[in-house]
Amino acid sequence: MKILLNDFKAHESLTLEEEINPDDLDLDIGIMHFPDNLTLSAEAWKSGDEVTVQAHVEGMRNFTCSLCLEEFNNLFEKDFTLHYDIKGLDSISLDSDVRDEIIMEHPIRVLCRPDCSGLCPFCGANLNHEKCECKSKE
Ligand SMILES: [Zn+2]
Ligand SMILES: [Zn+2]
Predict the structure, then answer these.
(1) Long-range contacts for 126-133 (Cβ within 8 Å, ≥24 apart)?
(2) Would you say 94 and 53 are in contact if contact means Cβ atoms under 8 Å apart?
């Protein structure tokens, strides 16, 4: 998202909305994926040499469970505020800061549900769906 400083009218905030293509921001890292575009909505204020942006980003997020390796979706949502020093600039680009805010939410480990039973280390059965005989044989 780019904000042109000329678009600011005196004493008025600027409202912007944009679709983000996850590929453009290089968001597909590790176990977090975004199958669809995200929506970025922002309200920006200019005061003197500073622009403040109140942003909201949301989109469907796809995970692979760290225990059972099953894929699942949940909604990603985040509100954040950005500040820009606009001295000598005629536009500001939010992209790298928006990316940072999203990547910051990247978990190291994620479970499909709090009580995920994971995979059997012996036969690989998904213990959320089936019971295997490995434990009883032991
Ligand atoms: Zn799981
Ligand atoms: Zn087993």
Answers:
(1) 126/68, 126/70, 127/68, 128/68, 128/70
(2) yes
CA of 74 to the centre of ligand 1 (A): 13
Does the global pTM surpass 0.90?
A: no
Low-confidence stretches of the chain (pLDDT beneath 70): 136-138
Q: Which domain holds residue 47?
A: 2-137
DSSP 8: P
Tokens of 95: 């992209």
User: Nearest bound ligand to CA 116?
Assistant: 1
Count of the separate structural domains present in the chain: 1
Residue 68 CA to ligand 1 center (angstroms) comes to 4
